[in-house]
Amino acid sequence: TLLKTIDAREKIALVPFDAVIMAGGMGKRLSPLTDTIPKPMLDLAGRPIWEWIIDDLIKYDVKHIYLSVNYLRDKIKNYFGEGYQGVPITYLEEDHPLGTAGALGFISGNNRPLLVTNGDVLNNTKIEEMFKLHQAKSSLITIASIKHEYKLPFAVMENIDGRLAKIIEKPTMTYDCNAGIYMLSEKVLKEVATNEYLDMPDFVDRISNRNNGSTHVFKHFGYWMDIGTPEDYKKARSFMQYVAK
Questions:
Q1: How far apart are CA 148 and CA 175, in angstroms?
Q2: Nearest-5° angle of CA 225, CA 229, CA 232?
Q3: SS in 3 state form for 73-112?
Q4: pLDDT reported for residue 94
């Protein structure tokens, strides 16, 4: 079998996949913290953000890691080098911004499913469950989703042809939102040209439009934190201090 559960003290599961971590821009919203330090290297409980993310990938036996880098890239490369805990690392170096999917055009010869994750998202996505869904559906792209609730500040009126049906007082709307975590079939990488500017939503639309029914959603119910603002970073630091104990 492709998937085998083993000793959780070492690995959570054996999953045959490679991974890409996207740098996510220059982190301007976190300035001045990111004026001299790239966002992936910001400290969380004594370790860089990306070290936490990579450790989680290693628990699932990732075979190869690609790091998409641009801003202050040498500080990232000097820290992680050519590999981490025996897992080889390849750098996808952008000389100019290529969007959230453009770096995929630098990958060649990949023959395993590819997990792509935003580099500023902390989460405990069950990669083995996402992989099993991806395989079972013969999916070309599987996207992790998180539930987000928004409470409207006003009453909502439902009407039929102008006649009031009912009033709902300040309802809560629930949405499945993109978690920034994707499982890609190795087949789709050829759809991204080298040095092509491409954002991930446009890439997903491209694949979906050409291959009807090829994209699926994996619902994530664990923790998920985006590190995009000083307030988000403060929350993440408090949370990871707890996790590190």
A1: 5
A2: 35
A3: HHHHHHHHCCEECCEEEEEEECCCCCCCCHHHHHCCCCCC
A4: 87
pTM strictly above 0.85? yes
Q: Torsions phi, psi of 11, nearest 5?
A: -135, 150
Q: What pLDDT does 12 receive?
A: 85
- Distances in Å between the Cα of 71 and the Cα atoms of 39, 56, 116, 117 are 9, 24, 19, 18
Characterize 70-104 residue by residue with b for buried, 16 or more Cβ atoms within 10 angstroms of its Cβ, and e for exposed.
bbbbeebeeebeeebeebebebbebeeebbbbbbb
Residues 6+ apart with CB under 8 A from 160: none
Tokens 């993440």 locate to 236
* Predicted local distance difference test score (pLDDT) of residue 9: 47
State which residues of the chain have pLDDT below 70. 1-10, 24, 245
- Residue-wise DSSP of 4-19: EE--TTT-SEE---EE
Residues 91, 67 contacting (CB under 8 angstroms): yes
Q: Tell me, rounded to whole angstroms, the distance of Cα 11 from its chain centroid.
A: 20
How do beta strands 121-123 and 224-226 pair?
Answer: antiparallel
Q: Are strands 47-48 and 43-44 parallel, antiparallel or unpaired?
A: antiparallel
DSSP 15-47: ---EEEEE--TT-GGGTTTTSSS-GGG-EETTE
